[in-house]
Amino acid sequence: MTLLRPDELDEDELTYRIFRVTRDRSPWRIEDVLREGRFSDDPVRAERAWRVASRGYYAEQAGLVAAATLAVETEDAPLRFSLALATADEARHADAFYQYAKAVGGEPEQCREVLQPLDDGLASLPYMGRALVHTLLEGLAADEFILLSQVFAGDPLGRLYHHVRRDEIRHIAIGLNFLARATRTPEGRDAWAAHAQEWHDIGIGLTGLEEVGVALAAHTNRDPADVQAWFLRRHRARLTAAGIEIDIQEGR
């Protein structure tokens, strides 16, 4: 691993501002969150909460590994610093979902194999592709947490999703800012033009968006196609706002 000089750390005002926001964030504690609501007396609802929290434990751990790997491999100083803080966030998230799962239903469900393909898929991509897919996954997770915080409103899990989502929004900004800067360089522009669509489609496949849409539709009494389209609209809006151009089609 190359140790980076500080020359470019605060060269870009927006990039450094995003880093400072992550650096100076107000922390939250899972112990406090567990006291903020009332666990459900409905065994079906409690089991559902335990299962999604178990999945959250493994998903956040995958995010931790992705952020840490990207931090180690980059020669972009502000990105490395920002991703180091994001890695710590992901560790706190994973532990929080673990603590919630134990409180509501015992040890987390063994669902590692469900998320292992995501980890493997990320590892197979080149750096810019991994950065894109990691940012895509963080964005879709943040959107999913909007719906899950509604599904579990009044339960500590609903409040937990609120806190985790606030962290994920900062992570999305880190990724989008890097991609916007990287695609302005000659090398990055060429790589993006040649491979961005391929990387993006791989990322959409790794999200299991269709299955996620079906599950959330069942929880929220909505049509699965409408839920999936909602995710894609929000994803498209984030990329467009960052000045990142890519073809995103509903049903892709």
The N- to C-terminal Cα distance equals 37 Å
**Strand residues, percent:** under 5%
Q: So how many helices?
A: 10
CATH fold descriptor of the domain at 13-179: Ferritin
Helix content range: over 70%
Query: Which residues form runs of ≥5 with pLDDT under 50?
Result: none
Q: Mean of residue pLDDT?
A: 91
Q: How would a crystallographer describe the biggest sheet?
A: none
Could you explain the architecture of this structure?
The protein is mostly helical. The protein has a domain at 13-179: Ferritin, CATH 1.20.1260. The protein is built from 10 helices and no strands. The chain is globular and about 60 Å long.
List the helices and strands and how they pair.
Layout: H1 13-23, H2 30-33, H3 43-73, H4 77-105, H5 112-123, H6 127-151, H7 156-182, H8 186-207, H9 209-220, H10 224-241
